[in-house]
């Protein structure tokens, strides 16, 4: 375990973010104002949410016409702009609401943290897209209907690996670590089954995570991981790379 992958450090970051006196009720990101409730991951303490918007090509209110993003293949757009969009782990709702503002016809946002569900709903109403954004409470895909399918399924994962026996001390910690990568394994196995024909399952990962383990899990689930876009950012004194992966179905599935 290196310093940047330490779950102990990530949990300390979670506690510090909750205790910080810099938790405003409203914050500004991508040229828009957003409400922030207690016990919800605060994008003001990390640039990862803004980078997620850039990796997805979700336009900011203050973005200039034709602004380009760093990516692996400049010709690709990672989601269907006027299609349906499912976000797992919506937090404050920045990604889900921005997808609706960018033109997605229907957006479903789920989170295991009930406060995050309320936060997403509040920001959907604030930006007048609550007619297209459905905020639901549930673990991973539990709140998704059996017959529902989406053009894009997306998760900005809690990519830091914690020990399998770790028990969360708060819902806020769920945004930071995944014990034993149990949730990552389920996402890899289940996300492609929720797609429309030609749809895309996306996973945003980081150098803070265990990429070797993620690849092993993908192989065990009969999945492939293709990097679509990547971006390096600075967090304090550290430089961290975020990568957006497309999850595919392997030609010869392994036993999950």
Mind explaining what this structure looks like?
The protein is globular and about 50 Å long. Residues 64-75 have low confidence and may be disordered. Strand 1 and strand 2 form a beta hairpin. The chain is of the alpha/beta class and 256 residues long. The strands form 3 sheets. A 7-stranded mixed beta sheet has the order 5-4-3-6-9-11-10. A two-stranded antiparallel ribbon has the order 1-2. It is built from 6 helices and 11 strands. Helix content is 24%, strand content 29%.
Give me the number of helical elements. Answer: 6
Our Rg estimate from Cα atoms comes to 17 Å
Give the low-confidence spans: 64-75
Total domain modules: 1
Q: Distance between termini? A: 26 Å
What portion of residues is helical?
A: 10-25%
Fourth CATH level, the homologous superfamily: Vaccinia Virus protein VP39
Strand order of the largest sheet: 5-4-3-6-9-11-10
Quick one: CATH class?
A: Alpha Beta
What name does the CATH topology carry? Rossmann fold
What would you call the shape?
globular
User: Which strand-content bin applies to the residues?
Assistant: 25-35%
Series of secondary-structure elements, N-terminal to C-terminal: HEEHEHEHEEEEHEHEE
The largest sheet is: 7 strands, mixed
Number of strands: 11
Mean pLDDT over the full residue set: 89
CATH architecture: 3-Layer(aba) Sandwich
Structural class: alpha/beta
List keywords for this structure.
single chain, 256 residues, alpha/beta, Rossmann fold, two-stranded antiparallel sheet
């Amino acid at each position: 375990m290196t310093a940047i992958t330490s779950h102990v450090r990530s949990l300390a970051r979670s506690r510090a973010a909750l205790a910080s006196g810099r938790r405003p009720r409203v914050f500004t990101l991508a040229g828009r104002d957003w409400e922030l409730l207690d016990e919800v991951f605060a994008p003001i303490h990390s640039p990862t949410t803004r980078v997620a918007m850039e990796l997805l090509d979700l336009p900011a209110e203050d973005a200039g016409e034709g602004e380009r993003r760093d990516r692996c293949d400049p010709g690709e757009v990672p989601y269907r702009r006027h299609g349906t969009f499912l976000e797992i782990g919506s937090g404050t709702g920045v990604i889900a609401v921005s997808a609706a503002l960018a033109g997605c016809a229907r957006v479903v946002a789920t989170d295991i943290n009930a406060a995050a569900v309320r936060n997403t709903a509040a920001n959907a109403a604030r930006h007048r897209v609550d007619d297209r954004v459905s905020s639901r409470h549930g673990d991973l895909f539990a709140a998704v209907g059996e017959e529902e399918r989406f053009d894009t399924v997306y998760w900005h994962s809690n990519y830091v690996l914690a020990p399998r026996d770790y028990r969360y001390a708060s819902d806020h910690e769920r945004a930071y670590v995944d014990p034993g990568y149990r949730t990552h394994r389920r996402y890899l196995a289940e996300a492609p089954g929720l797609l429309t024909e030609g749809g895309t399952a996306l996973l945003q990962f980081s150098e803070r995570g265990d990429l070797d383990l993620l690849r092993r899990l993908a192989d065990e689930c009969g999945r492939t991981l293709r990097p679509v876009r990547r971006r390096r950012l600075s967090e304090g004194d550290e430089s961290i790379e975020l990568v957006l992966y497309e999850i595919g179905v392997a030609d010869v599935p392994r036993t999950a």
